Amino acid sequence: MRSSSITGKAGTATGVTMTTPSASPARSNRRDIKGEKRRNEIMTLLASGDSNNVPVGELAETFRVSVATIRRDLSDLEERALITRTYGGAALLHPRAELTMNQRESTHAAAKHAIGRAAAQMIEDDDLVILDAGSTTEQIALAIGDRPVSVVTNGLRVINRLAGLEQVRVLVLGGGLRGINETIAGPDAEEMLARVYAQYAFMGVDGVDPKRGIASRTYEQSRVKSAMMRNAAQVVVVADSSKLVDQNFHYWSTLPREWTLITDHEADRDALEKLRASGGVSIITT
After folding, report:
1. Is residue 258 within 8 Å of residue 280, measured between CB atoms?
2. Interatomic CA distance for residues 272 and 210, integer angstroms
3. In this predicted structure, what is the pLDDT of residue 101?
4. Domains detected in the chain
């Protein structure tokens, strides 16, 4: 297995630019771990509550901290587009409406096509790779070509794109099918992933956040994404620019310490800077 291949091969991809994380000492402004845990628990409380508005005073009492501390927590969560501030309290934002795969196909189509080509250039003959479900990973499948590659996937679109190729070996993950995004997930998929180790896991996402990781629509999907990333030497997130500015989701999978993002040239500059500041990410723009 290659020890490192992202930088070398990505650097030769046509029409892409790449930045890599620089080695630096631990930052002195590292986020307070206790505070971050409390903010995560606030999110859990808001998600499980019966009320659309949880008062600040109630949150302060629940977590045994001052009202001022809770207000700072809520300001932090609001900045990250995870909650909305209400009169005297806070409530969760709701995720944007989910598109069908046919609708996704025509959304940011040119960007997804370019991202798919850049990702496919990383793959070498005889590699075993994981292709997550999604309209962008479908473009990777299209760009692979008929060559000796093994692909592990939970995406119906990826399966259909690869089905007619003679040299590509496809391992289909088992489980329940979620129709709207044509994704297979569940314990069977996780168990199958535990038996493979890939050169790359190419991850489709609904959102990317430097602290929370990558977003999914369901808890089951987030578990499968986590298993995919655990069982690959290198994790590559493929996300068009719209996915970098929407963190309003409930289910997240933590990214590894080092990973790669492939996005398009219209990516929000501030969003990219936040990702770089979190450390460990190499960014390729198409």
Report:
1. yes
2. 9
3. 64
4. 6-21+99-285 (3.40.50.1360), 33-92 (1.10.10.10)
